[in-house]
Write a structure and sequence with these properties.
Keywords: Signal. This protein is mostly helical and 86 residues long. It has 2 domains: 40 residues, no CATH class; 38 residues. The chain contains 2 helices and 2 strands; from the N terminus they run αββα. A hairpin with a 5-residue loop joins strand 1 and strand 2. The protein is rod-shaped and about 95 Å long. The model has no long low-confidence stretch (mean pLDDT 76).
Amino acid sequence: MKSMTALLAGTVVAATMAAAAPASAQSITIGPDGRPGIDLRSRGQRERDYDREMRRRDRDDYYREQRYRERDRFERRGYDRRGYDY
C-alpha cells in the first residue's frame, strides 16, 4: 500500500513537471542548421530587445553618416585627413 501511494505521488509530480515545462517556454524556434531553440522571454521582453537593437542601429547609422559628411566636406575643400591645406 505504501509503495502504491509513493508511486501515485511520483506519477503526479512527474506529470505536473512535464505539463509545466512546455508552458514555461514562450517561443520555440528551429535554427538554420535544424537545431531547436527555446526562448523563455515574454513577447514584451522580445519586443523591447528588438526595439533596443533598432535604436542602436539607427544611432550607429547616424554617426556613420556624420563621419562621412565631415570627410566629404574636408575633401571638397582640398584638405587632407589631418586638416592641412596643400
